[in-house]
């Protein structure tokens, strides 16, 4: 008999017209249903989400729910009318970006006397500096999304994001501590492969498989991290 999955729902959060907003256990979803689930989603992007529901991962750091709901309303409406995900997310990002500007997030990272944002303003704390010189930072994910890339999710590194300084790996503080090790493994493995010349698509696919494997076999996480230079 197939093992039944537990519901990912944590709490009912809000209602927008016919839509019910739920706070969900993103770590559980990524570990058991879909490793590519991000901070939020709706039915036409993730078919396992009921049609009249919006799912938002519980916040570990800064509250972004209002931004995500505004995004989902646009994305869901356009895709329900037949728009592609690519076209829908482009329009939804515009709405979300406008709301982030109104909230004053960009001013929080503005470098005094300079029109460009200050990269160090998003650093929360240094997690670890590796022997190979790579610095792993926990960063303010909300400010990264507001000032640099609205689609930044979970983590990233300098071989993918042009705004991340050379030799740095960033882990989103919206990822809870119990899940950070798996995201870290993904980013280190992906960065190491890209530094060796792999294209992003291939490095990302292999890293996702490794991450998903370790989510199901957490006893292997320590050794997997050590193999990527985390010692």
Give a structural overview:
The protein has 231 residues and is α/β, with parallel strands linked by helices. It folds into two domains: 95 residues, no CATH class; 109 residues, no CATH class. Helix content is 42%, strand content 18%. It contains eight helices and eight strands; from the N terminus they run E-E-H-E-E-H-H-H-E-E-H-E-E-H-H-H. The strands form two sheets. The protein has a four-stranded mixed β-sheet with strand order 1-2-4-3, with helices on both faces. It is globular. It starts with 8 loop residues before the first strand and ends with a helix.
Quickly describe the structure.
By secondary structure, this protein is an alpha/beta fold. It contains 8 helices and 8 strands. α2 packs antiparallel against α3.
Beta-strand percentage? 15-25%
Number of strands: 8
Principal-axes geometry comes out as globular
The end-to-end distance, rounded to whole angstroms, is: 41 Å
Radius of gyration: 18 Å
Domain unit count: 2
**In which range does the helix fraction lie?**
40-55%
Report mean pLDDT, rounded to a whole number: 91
**N-to-C order of helices and strands:** EEHEEHHHEEHEEHHH
Class per helix and strand makeup = alpha/beta
The low-confidence parts are none
**Helix count, per DSSP?**
8
**Going across the major beta sheet, what is the strand order?**
1-2-4-3
Main sheet specs: 4 strands, mixed
